[in-house]
Specification:
With 304 residues, the chain is an all-alpha fold. It has 14 helices and no strands.
């Protein structure tokens, strides 16, 4: 592994290259926050894909792509005189120190600096006093750290005004549901025993089945059909939300679990499709029993 000096030199080189591209490359020169945003989302998903696959080399490369985008946004802001990458890094380091009083001595967190750190300047007097008064210092487990983190964020002058306001609206639905439930848990809104969640899951499943069992009248108007579909969709959402809640309580990540199942389905279905091609028989001409037999073959091969 590289030394800290080598790491800083490599980071500086990336900033130098970005400066040169911004000045000399026609594509880089025309980029804005708005034009970069879709690419950033794509790069983030590519990183997530590499992480799920456990591909170390691809993970390294995709991290570089995401890091370049972060530096690019800071570069654009610096050109407007708003902030630069040093402000981003300093603010983040200050925030981490401030939100981890169980790691950093309160005197370090609140110690006067020759020049007040930007994040410290943005914090209210009440927050500066309470973050280091011992109330949040004694976290010894990961769950306690998360609970402290949420409480400290609510006390910040420019922090979240409500417990759930920090959940980005653009998050994918499964991840968003998990984050909503996790944030609610951190302020004490949770099941007393994780086993109790199954009653809720069964209740939501029963309500979904009941709603789906209602026939749509043949003479129903479009508005009536939409009303029925909305009710069915609502019950499906409640059921999925309860399942995600159960996963959280049992320390399982529902997004990772679903992604693994997606990959498994793709592997098995591809196996079926490849065999149909070798047999010269399109999938559309195969019976369900024939496809099931190939599907089970794929399952058995995975166990070997």
């Amino acid at each position: 592994m590289h030394t800290r000096e080598e790491q800083m030199k490599a980071f500086g080189r990336l900033l130098d290259v970005l400066d040169q591209l911004r000045e000399k490359c026609p594509w880089d020169k025309k980029q804005t926050n708005e034009s970069l945003r879709p690419n950033t989302i794509e790069e983030t998903y590519e990183l997530c894909d590499a992480l799920v696959r456990g591909d170390v080399n691809d993970t390294m490369k995709e991290l570089g792509d995401v890091l370049m985008h972060l530096c690019f946004y800071a570069k654009i802001a610096s050109e407007k005189g708003q902030f630069d990458v040093a402000d981003v890094l300093t603010t983040q380091a200050d925030k981490l120190i401030f939100r981890h009083p169980h790691v950093y001595d309160p005197s370090q967190v609140g110690a006067p600096e020759p020049k007040p750190l930007p994040y410290r300047e943005a914090c209210s007097k009440e927050q500066r006093e309470t973050s280091g008064n011992g109330k949040f210092e004694n976290a010894t487990t990961a769950d306690q750290v998360l609970q402290n983190w949420e409480q400290i964020k609510l006390k910040e002058k420019d922090g979240n005004k409500r417990v759930l306001s920090g959940v980005p609206s653009a998050l994918p639905s499964v991840i968003k549901a998990y984050r909503i439930q996790d944030k609610a848990r951190n302020v004490g809104f949770d099941w007393e025993k994780k086993e109790n969640v199954w009653e809720k899951v069964r209740e939501e499943l029963a309500e979904l089945e009941q709603e789906l069992s209602k026939p749509i009248p043949a003479d129903a108007s479009d508005e009536e059909k939409r009303t029925i579909r909305d009710a069915q969709e609502g019950e499906l959402g409640d059921y999925l939300f309860s399942l995600i809640n159960a996963a959280r309580l049992y320390k399982l990540n529902p997004d990772n679990a679903l992604e693994k199942t997606n990959a498994k389905f793709i592997r098995r279905f591809t196996y079926v499709e490849e065999h149909s091609i070798r047999q010269g028989k399109p999938l559309t001409e195969m019976t369900l029993a024939e496809m099931d037999a190939l599907w089970n073959e794929a399952k058995q091969l995975e166990k070997q």
